[in-house]
Amino acid sequence: MSNTVIRLAEDADNDRITEMSEQCLQEGMITMFVNRTPRFNTLHRLIDSRAVHYVACCGEEITGLLGVIHFPFRMLGKECRAAYLLDFRVAREHRGGMTAFRLVKEAVSTLEATDTDFVIANFLKDNRHSLIFTTGKAKIPNSFFAGENKIFNILPLVKMKLNKRFEISHPESSDIPELIELYRKYSESFKMAPVFDEDLLRRLTGSIKGLSPDNFFIARENGKIKAVAAAWDEHYYKSYQVTRLNLPVRIAALAIQFLSLFIRTPRPIRLNEPLRQLSLVLYAHDKCPEALETIFRYINNIHIGGEYTLITLYAQATDPLFSLMKKFIGVTIRSDMYIFARDTSVYPQLAADTSPVLFHPGMIL
Asked: Cis peptide before 361, with omega less than 30 degrees from 0?
């Protein structure tokens, strides 16, 4: 392991990265691994042309991976340059050594030499291997714990009542200025949030498969857009390959399969197949949470008995958004967010502001 070299990943590394990723299982109720296609970095480059991945190599073998994307972000009312760490994986037989630390150290050292103001990282709850990077050791900046995140996985089993105040439809190109203003106003209620502008929205909807206007839903009241959300099928770029189910999930899958004889049910979870899911992204509302809830209910309803097993919502646990989800059927996975700032004097200000962080689309896609 002492011969491990850290370098920038190249397109030619794709097959070896895929092979390594298949060994990096995410264990839980559903054990699975992440498979990115057509290449390991396709989606990242669409979001950020400067996106990079680092690989750890031991001879010809790739033993670790860490990606970095960059985007403008607003922190406490000030526009900053942010980076987000993602795709952090280390082959099982190399987890006891320095591979993970060296990957993070290389990424952070490189970012420190740029105009990046802070780095965001999300780690699965109680992941002891990842938490060693948050203690400020070995010249990695001290971190700020920015709170707990929730991944709420909706099971579209039951048709939900819609609020008749709102008309649900797809947006037109003429709606873009109103949508930009809606996103901008919505983001102001968060202590940290993406910088929404027309360039970002057009770049995402124009280049990423599954994010065309037909995948967006708006709720209108008296002609005015009160809320928006997109339902994104990520499988062209990313899938979760299921390798094992625990006993309760196997029982639930069998129960859903039995119920399918009588009612419309979601696609069952199957071993050695991708987990079929939609992600709720690019959502906002104009101080009208009931409009956004109506969109979520509408999306739930149109996918009952369809090809998707889950509809996923990923946000900070303190986001008022989750108060809208109480009547949805689903299961929750948790993670923790940490901030590594160049200027650590912002940490007390972040701690004093109890509002949540709004995720950039690149932190979800």
From this structure: no
Q: What is the pLDDT of residue 1?
A: 45
> Contact 229/299 with Cβ under 8 angstroms?
yes
Which pLDDT score, from 0 to 100, does residue 127 have?
60
Kindly state the tokens that stand for 228: 């928006």
d(CA 330, CA 282): 21
**Cβ-contact 33, 240 below 8 angstroms:** yes
Distance CA 135, CA 126 (A): 14
Token code pair at residue 130: 């990842």
Burial of 241 per CB tally in 10 Å (0-12, 13-18, 19+): middle
| Among the four given CATH numbers 3.30.470.20, 3.40.630.30, 3.40.50.720, 3.90.1150.10, the one describing domain 5-149 | 3.40.630.30
Q: How far apart are the first and last CA of the chain?
A: 33
Q: Give the pairing of strands 310-316 and 277-285.
A: parallel
- At 184-228, the pLDDT tens digits run 999 999 999 999 999 999 999 999 999 999 999 999 999 999 999
Tokens representing residue 234 in the block: 């990520």
| Residue among 271, 263, 225 at smallest CA distance from 245 | 271
What pLDDT score was predicted for residue 133?
Answer: 67
Burial profile 61-73: b = 16 or more Cβ within 10 angstroms, e = fewer: ebbbbbbbbbbeb
Whether pTM exceeds 0.90: yes
Q: Tell me how far apart the alpha carbons of residues 87 and 54 are, in angstroms, rounded to a whole number.
A: 10
Q: Would you say 125 and 335 are in contact if contact means Cβ atoms under 8 Å apart?
A: yes
For the chain, the helix, strand and coil percentages under 3-state DSSP, each to the nearest 5: 30, 35, 35
Correct CATH for 153-334 of 3.40.630.30, 2.40.10.220, 3.40.50.740, 3.30.70.20: 3.40.630.30
Q: Is 320 helix (H, G, I), strand (E, B) or coil?
A: helix
Q: How far is CA 71 from CA 3, 48, 50, 243, in A?
A: 34, 7, 10, 34
As a whole number of angstroms, the distance between CA 36 and CA 19 comes to: 11
- What are the tokens at 40? 């390991």
Could you state, in order of their start, the residue ranges of all structural domains in the chain?
Answer: 5-149, 153-334
